[in-house]
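Query structure, 496 tokens:
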């Protein structure tokens, strides 16, 4: 449970936000420096209730096996797989990290958060079929994707995922790729398990406590101003001093980094994107589909709006989820305030925001169209994936809030980014994570990189321990092929 009365006095490390990033970093730090005093603050009354909540994300262990936005097409028609390889290797590091904790007996050997689910890409139309074939050929030339399968035969695709083909016109050109290495991840269960590990090592996890501001202390380190949001607090406002601060607060990270007044955050802004999913738990429908199937985004749609039909396993119960459908909210957190966006506007980021608005009219048009879409139009989108669907068997749920990164650009004024980015002070005493996908899936790699960046004086001494947690972090020229194979074979086994 949470620490309701954290001890007085300064701490070595404060982690803001009770999600997957803070949970991962808490476990890493306590393994590297078991004598450090670490505390996690979460503004809600429980952990993993924002982006790490399993129904606020698609649960895809992003390994670039099915997501087309990680394999863009070059002007000459070839496919660039560099980002796909990077994401795949970063997810491998997460699997190794979890497996390390299993081997130590700190996570259960029979995992409740990881389920084996094939990852597929499904496209329609001759042009898209040709692109998917080129993508398959490019990916399978790399050893990380050697096990991927391709088919443009509807009968084969039906054997992989019957709902995609049932009652579809035989005249329609279709194709799919499949990887049996895919997974579904319940990031809520994983976050809670990691924080249990952290607590067992002495980490204090404090819920219902909101960090309102972060200010640099004259003598070094940071002072955090806190507001107690519990129903019967002893003190409404308190403060705590820390040597190092990590801001893993999702959409709340931008404002807190701005409050720290570090020059590195100048020019950054956020673009909030809400969304909805359709979900069914009807046993006969769920039993007919076992895969995460990603399609191709509409023209002008953001990468995170790529349609996908996902098998989900949450708290051991299977379901299907389709989406996302774009929504609109100026909140930066699902459980945030209406003025979230307004509070982050600064003279230093206004030009970037206006430039992004100017250069992304197609995105704005897409979002407006999605907001105006009727239930019938949403059902048609689902039928493009599942021709036999009955919308009456599906419910609409609101997804988590995403805040995409806007950053200054000397040529264009500002650019809109669709990935994740770590922003850190020059002295490494504070850092935060901005952006969205593939964030959660690459948490272990991101936090290991953050530690090496923020603690350069300790990085060399930590390398052996970090590589023991995640063997794939070792430079390629220091590992043999046998080492790589052993690391893969030893990664955490998922439930079938």
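Result returned for the query:
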């Amino acid at each position: 449970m949470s620490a309701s009365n954290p001890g007085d006095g300064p701490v070595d490390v404060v982690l803001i936000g009770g999600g997957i990033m803070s949970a991962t970093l808490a476990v890493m730090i306590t393994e590297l420096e078991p004598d450090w005093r670490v505390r996690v603050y979460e503004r809600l009354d429980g952990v993993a209730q924002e982006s790490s909540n399993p129904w606020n994300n698609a649960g895809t262990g992003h390994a670039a096996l099915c997501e087309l936005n990680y394999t863009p097409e070059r002007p000459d028609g070839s496919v660039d797989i560099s980002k796909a390889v990077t994401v795949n290797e970063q997810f491998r590091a997460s699997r190794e990290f979890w497996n390390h904790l299993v081997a130590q007996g700190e996570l259960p050997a029979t995992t409740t958060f990881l389920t084996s689910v094939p990852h597929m890409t499904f496209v329609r139309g001759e042009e898209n079929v040709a692109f998917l074939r080129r993508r398959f050929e490019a990916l399978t030339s790399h050893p990380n994707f050697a096990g991927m399968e391709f088919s443009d035969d509807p009968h084969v695709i039906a054997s992989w995922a019957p709902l995609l083909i049932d009652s579809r016109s035989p005249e329609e050109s279709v194709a799919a790729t499949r990887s049996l290495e895919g997974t579904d991840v319940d990031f809520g269960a994983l976050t809670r398990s990691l924080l249990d590990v952290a607590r067992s090592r002495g980490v204090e996890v404090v819920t219902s406590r909101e960090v309102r501001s972060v200010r640099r202390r004259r003598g070094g380190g940071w002072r955090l101003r806190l507001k107690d949001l519990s129903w019967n607090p002893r003190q409404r406002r308190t403060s705590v001093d820390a040597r190092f601060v990590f801001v893993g607060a999702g959409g709340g990270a931008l404002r807190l980094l701005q409050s720290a007044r570090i020059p590195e955050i100048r020019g950054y802004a956020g673009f909030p994107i809400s969304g909805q999913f359709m979900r069914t738990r009807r046993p006969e429908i769920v039993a007919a589909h076992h895969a995460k199937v990603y399609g191709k985004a509409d023209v002008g749609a953001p990468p995170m709006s790529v349609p996908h039909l996902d098998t989900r396993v949450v708290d051991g119960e299977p379901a299907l989820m389709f989406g996302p459908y774009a929504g609109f909210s100026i909140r930066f957190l699902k459980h945030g305030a209406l003025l979230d966006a307004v509070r982050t506007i600064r003279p230093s980021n206004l030009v970037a925001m206006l430039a992004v608005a100017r250069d992304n009219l197609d995105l704005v048009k897409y979002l407006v169209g999605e907001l105006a879409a009727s239930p019938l139009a949403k059902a048609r989108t689902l039928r493009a994936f599942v021709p036999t669907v009955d919308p009456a068997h599906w419910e609409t749920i609101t997804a988590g809030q995403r805040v995409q990164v806007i950053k200054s650009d000397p040529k264009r004024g500002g650019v809109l980014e669709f990935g994740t980015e770590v922003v850190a002070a020059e002295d490494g005493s504070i850092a935060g994570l901005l952006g969205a996908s593939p964030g959660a899936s690459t948490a272990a790699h991101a936090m290991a990189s953050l530690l090496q960046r923020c603690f350069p004086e300790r990085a060399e001494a930590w390398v052996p321990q970090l590589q023991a947690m995640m063997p794939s972090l070792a430079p390629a020229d220091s590992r043999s092929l046998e080492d790589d194979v052993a690391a893969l074979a030893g990664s955490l086994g998922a439930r079938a």
